[in-house]
Write a structure and sequence with these properties.
Helices cover 47% and strands 22% of the residues. The protein is built from 8 helices and 8 strands; from the N terminus they run H-H-E-E-E-E-E-E-H-E-E-H-H-H-H-H. The relative contact order is 0.16.
Length: 189
């Protein structure tokens, strides 16, 4: 199962078997059932993780208890609450498994030790941060410049096998529309 992680890293930088063993020794495998939390908003428990199996939603609860879904994260993707992880601040988001999931995680202290033992991972880290920034900018531009229908069609095209696994409540929150409006969008498409 960890092979997905190794392939993800080796798409950017080569690893020796010894370096790979060090990476595995610094990470932890977490298995979550559907609806279990990896991270709870306003806690101090933040990880950087790579999803081996499953599906997660990253969301914030506003003052009246309404969820605002920021991202969905799928198999073979990285995820992290950047501000909390890198600045050791309370977590900004909840991260919840939408289906039974497995994720390889690392905390900030272990990551620093990993950089000391495998320095070339810093190059991979920079590439990951660049990708995260691009994803955040694209999400922001989509929200600001695209219609709800365009965002739905883009999402459906990008994740054709996953869109059915996301219920209307979560998808409407992600798109920033009501359940009723999402139903209308789906009927027209």
């Amino acid at each position: 199962m960890y092979n997905l992680l190794r392939k993800s890293i080796e798409r950017k930088i080569p690893l020796t078997d010894q370096e790979w063993d060090i990476i595995v020794s610094k990470t932890q495998l977490i298995k979550l059932k559907k609806n279990q939390f990896l991270q709870i908003q306003n806690s101090y428990n933040s990880y950087q993780g790579f999803i081996l199996k499953g599906l997660f939603k990253t969301y914030a609860l506003n003052e009246n208890g309404t969820e605002s879904v920021i991202f969905f994260s799928f198999e073979n993707e990285w995820m992290c609450d950047l501000q909390s992880f890198y600045h050791q601040k309370p977590t900004t988001y909840n991260v919840k498994a939408i289906e039974d999931s497995e994720i390889v995680v690392i905390n900030k202290e272990e990551k620093a030790q990993l950089f000391a033992k495998v320095p070339k991972l810093f190059q991979f880290h920079v590439l990951m941060i660049e990708s995260a920034n691009v994803a955040i900018q694209e999400r922001l531009l989509d929200v600001l410049n695209k219609t709800s229908k365009q965002r739905y069609l883009d999402f459906k095209e990008r994740y054709p096998h996953k869109v059915q696994k996301i219920n209307n409540k979560n998808l409407s929150s992600y798109l920033g529309v009501s359940h009723e409006f999402l139903s209308k969008i789906k009927k027209r498409c």
